[in-house]
Amino acid sequence: MKPRLPHKEDMPMPRFLTALALISLAPMPALADPLQDALAASQDGPLYTFDLTYRDSDIEALIQVDPSRPEGERLLVLSPDKSEWSEDLTKRIEDMQASTDGDIWCHNLAEHIPDDARLVSETDKTATYTFTPLPAEDADKNEKKVTKHLTGSVVVDKIDPAILSFRMASDKPFKPVAVAKIDDFDMQIACARAPDGRTHIARMDISLSGSAMMQAFSQSDHQAISNLQPIPNSGTGSK
Predict the structure, then answer these.
(1) Residue 25 has what pLDDT?
(2) Rounded to 5 degrees, what are φ and ψ at 53?
(3) Which top-rank group of organisms is this from (predicted)?
(4) Residue 111 pLDDT exceeds 90
(5) Quick count: other Cβ atoms within 10 Å of Cβ 238?
(6) Second label for 37, Cα 20 to 30 Å away, from 84, 92, 199, 226?
């Protein structure tokens, strides 16, 4: 007798296959992405006054910052006394007076994070991503040349979405211009929670070494932000 192929009426579909088919037709929920959750977190909150500690190889200063004051009047140098200011510190204060606006939020580091950032590790509480960083929107051509040689990483909070730390560093020496070579570049940012829950830059350390015009150079820069105090009736936002 010739074997007869089963006809569909002969084989009722098992229940588990029916359920599987229905599941496959149903829309699948989007998978959680801790980085996207962190970047989408609300940034509403007041302005804050804060203390800024600044230190490099030649300068050490403690500065009180009040971003609600008029431009040019937002910094109060607590130490050293003005009579002890070096030329470098005077120039640094002038530059900071012109640019300080209370924008201390780690969320703004998102401008350096591309859409193709790759998840490389995670714990129950955090997720870590790596990427080739994007230059800042207002970066000049030299900054853009440096950025493309760096590797970026960011750690985000999975429980209370926010950026917790950020880093951009060189993996190997590079030449951003013909007459200069960067042997090592490393910028590390640690974030902390403000009273309203947003994360702000708590510490930023930058180190740079290399040579230019046949002369070696090495420099480091440390900044720390502490003692945040909300400014009454300052509304929301970062500026």
Answers:
(1) 44
(2) -100, 125
(3) Bacteria
(4) yes
(5) 19
(6) 226
CA distance 101 to 230: 14
The answer on pLDDT for 45 being more than 60 is yes
Domain ranges of the chain: 34-230
Structure tokens at 186: 């490393």
ω before 133 within 30° of 0 (cis)? no
Q: Once rounded to an integer, what is the mean pLDDT over residues 168-180?
A: 91
| Calpha distance 236→149 (Å, rounded) | 36
Query: By the 8 A CB rule, do 77 and 93 touch?
Result: yes
Candidates 151, 146, 181; CA nearest to 167 is: 151
> Length of the chain in residues, anyone?
239
Model confidence over 217-228: pLDDT tens digits? Answer: 999 999 999 999
**Average pLDDT of the residues in 91-97:** 86
8 A C-beta contact, residue 223 and residue 204: yes
CB half-sphere exposure, 209, CA atoms < 13 A: 5
Q: pTM of the entire structure?
A: 0.82
